[in-house]
UniProtKB/TrEMBL annotation:
It is an enzyme of class 7 (translocase). Its main location: membrane. It is a multi-pass membrane protein. This is NAD(P) transhydrogenase subunit beta. It catalyses: NAD(+) + NADPH + H(+)(in) = NADH + NADP(+) + H(+)(out). Residues 36-495 form the NADP transhydrogenase beta-like domain. It holds the Pfam family PNTB. Belongs to the PNT beta subunit family. Residues 1-23 form the signal peptide. The lineage of its organism: Bacteria, Pseudomonadati, Pseudomonadota, Alphaproteobacteria, Sphingomonadales. It comes from Blastomonas marina. It comes from the Bacteria. Keywords: Cell inner membrane, Cell membrane, Membrane, NAD, NADP, Signal, Translocase, Transmembrane, Transmembrane helix.
Length: 498
């Protein structure tokens, strides 16, 4: 099917629409109960994959379920549709699979957030290309009703292209921010809300006009304008979002990619794509909502690109007035850690940047050999993507049964001898509970102040977290600041423990 589209895409839209070659999928195949059953089995595998990926302990099994479901869907589609060249499609699959395999083998776990954003962009771009292919050669997709594309098919096509374009350009900006190629600070354009709403209204209007207009000459300017504006609004929606909201952005873009795939599934008449896209889209949306609640963020404000955000937020991360604090050394920390009975470690993005997870695991092993109980506390939005800290700790072979979510471990800080904070900031800031004027007020945070001793590793006292507010934990009587690169400091603590 794809090889029939490519040569035709070089011709004019009018010539394509007039082409008698209506090599659509076999109608008998699409109505066959065996095809429906195969797609249903693939859908069940995708559901099992999502269930498996909900926990690090079952994530490998979840991945295998997802791979099996995709294999069933691809084989079923190829077998039941008229395809000009299976060899060419096989070569394309092999090339894509090889590239994915090499990237997965070589990518550092600390770079996983930007890799996820990059892959989301490819899903969005694929949706745009499929939508345009369907527009340029509707006969190959079975979309013609008489001499024109049906109105319903145009709506599906327009939505798929629009959502795909938004996913692509938004994911590119997310990738640039997460990889450090672009500042993580919000970029707030003047009248951005008016621009965003106006652009969105124009996209909706163009989609409606595209659905009601017939003839390739009349519809071509509409679909071009729709595509360009969709690319633009994806860019405009993500640049106002700061680094602190990146976990929600990654989850949100994942949801967008799912809805783009579902829209293209309707265009192609492919049940498996509809099921898969709906699963990814709905699960991503639910996760984004849960994460927004965990960050005390409005879901609407995040998906609207910082709608209602204070322009002063763009200056987040500026240094605040210095107050007296205690600074310690690796030797001090090592001495008190080995005297402790219970230590709770709170990792954050600083640990990921320093790639300190392996040194942290080594420190944990030494402490446990000395009879110290060590647990890890993970905040829902720690890092730059959902589950970022869980992935890093799993890479360092930290046992799953030692890793706890906020609601499961927060009550244990009062029994802990040491709260060991490495690269985290806003997720331990008590202002979230005490200061109603704080931008993080209402966000659940760890009660590290209840621990007998707090060690706080950060590079310097010259900056604050992404929320742009100072942290009273720095100045508590039981807090000792360990100012250094996270990996270097933990390695020095390990030497001192040895």
């Amino acid at each position: 099917m794809l090889t029939k589209i490519l040569p035709a895409s070089l011709a004019s839209p009018a010539a394509l629409w007039a082409s008698p070659a209506l090599a659509a999928s076999d109608s008998a195949s699409t109505t066959s109960p065996w095809v429906a059953l195969a797609y249903l089995v693939a859908g069940v595998f995708f559901i099992l994959a999502l269930r498996g990926l909900s926990s690090p302990a079952t994530s490998r099994t979840g991945n295998r379920f997802g791979m099996a479901g995709m294999l069933i869907a691809i084989v079923t589609t190829l077998v039941t549709h008229s395809v000009a060249s299976l060899a060419e499609i096989g070569i394309a699959i092999a090339i894509g699979g090889l590239i994915g395999f090499l990237i997965a083998r070589r990518i550092a776990m600390t770079a996983m957030p930007e890799l996820v954003a990059a892959f989301h962009s490819l899903v969005g771009l694929a949706a745009v290309l499929v939508g345009w292919a369907a527009y340029l050669n509707p006969g190959a997709f079975g979309l013609l009703e008489g001499d024109a594309i049906g109105a319903v098919s145009k709506v599906e096509m327009g939505l798929g292209i629009a959502i795909g374009a938004i996913t692509f350009s938004g994911s590119v900006i997310a990738f640039a921010k997460l990889s450090g190629r672009m500042s993580g600070a919000p970029i707030l354009l003047p009248a951005r809300h008016v621009i965003n709403l106006g652009t969105l209204a124009a996209i909706i209007g163009l989609t409606a006009m595209f659905a009601m207009t017939t003839g390739p000459e009349e519809t071509l300017p509409l679909i071009v304008g729709l595509t360009v504006l969709a690319f633009a609004i994806g860019f405009l929606l993500i640049i106002p979002i700061g680094g602190a909201d990146m976990p929600v952005v990654v989850s949100m873009l994942n949801s967008y990619s799912g809805w783009a795939a579902a829209a293209m599934g309707f265009t192609l008449g492919n049940t498996a794509m509809i099921i898969t896209g709906a699963l990814v889209g709905s699960s991503g949306a639910i996760l984004s909502y849960i994460m927004c609640r965990a960050m005390n963020r409005s879901f609407l404000s995040v998906i609207a690109g910082g709608f209602g955000a204070d322009d002063s937020a763009a200056g987040g991360g500026e240094a605040r007035e210095q107050r007296p604090y205690k600074q310690g050394s690796a030797d001090d920390a090592a001495f008190m850690l080995e005297q402790a009975e219970k230590v709770i470690v709170i990792p954050g993005y600083g640990m990921a940047v320093a790639q300190a997870q392996h040194a942290l695991r080594e420190m944990t092993d030494i402490l446990e050999e000395k009879g110290v109980e060590v647990k890890f506390a993970i905040h829902p939005v720690a890092g730059r993507m959902p589950g970022h800290m869980n992935v890093l700790l799993a890479e360092a072979n930290v046992p799953y049964d030692k890793v706890f979510e906020l609601e499961d471990i927060n009550s244990e800080f009062s029994q802990a001898d040491v709260a060991f904070i490495i690269g985290a900031n806003d997720v331990v800031n008590p202002a979230a509970k005490t200061d109603k004027s704080s931008p993080i007020y209402g966000m659940p945070v760890f009660d590290v102040g209840a621990a007998k001793q707090v060690f706080f590793i950060k590079r310097s006292m010259g900056g604050v977290g992404y929320a742009g507010v100072d942290n009273d934990v720095f100045y508590m009587d039981q807090t000792m600041m360990l100012l250094s690169d996270a990996k270097k400091m933990v390695e020095e603590i390990v030497k001192a423990l040895d």
